[in-house]
Inverse folding.
């Protein structure tokens, strides 16, 4: 990775209505949001990514039920599974 995006440094969070966290990622890499996947373990990870047009992967280690109106593109229970989605192994 050439950049780590940290909420505190950006003064923006994944639930931010302006979606500044995801906008910073898109801006930095200069690629279409559809070519990015965000892997996270909270509903704000999925919702924020989807609002920005980014594919989302819910890391569901505890096998919980998804209770939100917007569904993740992928659901995994381990980072190994997430790596497989992007064609890499850990």
């Amino acid at each position: 990775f050439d950049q780590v995006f940290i909420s505190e440094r950006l003064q923006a969070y994944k639930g931010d209505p302006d979606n500044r966290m995801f906008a910073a990622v898109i801006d930095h890499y200069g690629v279409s949001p559809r070519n990015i996947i965000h892997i996270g373990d909270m509903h704000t990870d999925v919702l924020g990514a989807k609002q920005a047009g980014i594919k989302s992967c819910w890391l569901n280690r505890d096998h919980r039920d998804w209770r939100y109106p917007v569904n993740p593109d992928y659901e995994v229970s381990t980072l190994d599974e997430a790596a497989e989605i992007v064609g890499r192994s850990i």
About this structure: Helices lie at 7-10, 20-29, 43-51, 79-85. The CA atoms of residues 6 and 49 lie 15 Å apart. The longest helix spans residues 20-29. The longest strand covers residues 55-59.
